[in-house]
Amino acid sequence: MTAATAITSRIAAWITSETRLNLARTREEISRRLQRKGRDILYFHRTDDPYCQLMVQALPDLIARFDITVRPLVVERLPAIMYPDPARYEAYSILDATRLARLYGLGFPSSAMVPDRLSVGMANRYLVSLQDDPSFFGVAEEVGEALWRNDYKTVRTLCVAADIDESTLEENEKLLRGLGHYASGTVFYGGEFYLGLDRLDHLERRLNAARIGDDEVHFELTRLWRYGLNSMEKSLSGRQVELFFSVRSPYSYLGLQLASELVDKTGVRLKLKPVLPMMMRGMKVPPTKARYILLDTAREARAEKIPFGRIVDPLGSATERAMALGFALAEGGDDLAFFKAFTRGVWAEGIDGASEKGMATILDRSGLGASCAKEALDDAIWRPMAEKNQQMLFMAGAWGVPTFRVGAETLWGQDRLWAVVDTLKQE
Known about the structure:
The chain is of the alpha/beta class. The chain has 2 domains: about 40-220, Glutaredoxin (3-Layer(aba) Sandwich); about 230-425, Glutaredoxin (3-Layer(aba) Sandwich). It has 17 helices and 8 strands. The chain has a 4-stranded mixed sheet. Strands 6-5-7-8 form a 4-stranded mixed sheet. Helix 3 (about 50-65) links the parallel strand 1 and strand 2. It is globular.
């Protein structure tokens, strides 16, 4: 490992550390008190975001339980560069919101379809006029419910003509970008973003730590997938789950660790489908998105008690070496042990996967031994295999990693183990 790589790894460890996070929160709290401000939370709403339809139902619960004020801000135009495959994302998010709604007992039409653009524009502009109205969340839920039912007559009836300045939407969108994010359905509090229902438990714990709430956590149901697994072991043993992942994706690292836990507890067979990282396929990850992903992964890793932060970016030769060896080891069923050790090495242990020493250490920690390195496949063999996996991912209706595939169900995200288990139960 070069000196520059070692320094970069130490910097990453500091940026993602709980110590730095706590210091930042302390500074925010001191600043808030000095300015005599209340605990104000910003919520960015977009009517054609299905996750927002869930958020407007969940946030009133948060408001009732904590000494906070939530200020809704309506946005409409989001940076296209942040979404590499907007059509697949849009279709998938509707299905995923339906699953989340069932899990939390929230309303969302099971027959929801992509809404009409004209009605969306009408709804956004009407809700902008209600941003400072206490009735916002109730009205937003009602308008959204009609919109996702494709009941445009009701949308037109509810959304009376609103005399607003279009610059209000632009100002909200500019504020979202300026604060350092790119997506609707997010809440911002004290220097941190919490994206969607899946991250509200982090906010609840933070507010509870400030002793301004009821000390309860209502939005952690997605983390409870482990309960009851032991009683299902026989029924799930031998069933197959496919996992599409990239060794350069920090979320994939978490997904591999969590999926391995599922395998250990139930006997489920995990079929690994490695793909090349976006940047090695000619795509870009904007800095704003990359930073949020890094900090969010650190937060998720702490919640799941998975080590993270001492990073040596595997982009380039490290990824190529891992792919060449991982595909070769798959034939003997040793690919999971290897990829777990590799991703943990580069994302949590400061190991340089591009060096001979680093790869030898990873192989030793995987229990395979450094001699396995000679089994690596030739570039002309593993690259077409990786490309085939990528095409299978697209055909499954997904675009990013990690993605789980259970039968005909596609489940995107390391935080969808609960949905994987639920699908296995149903089948």
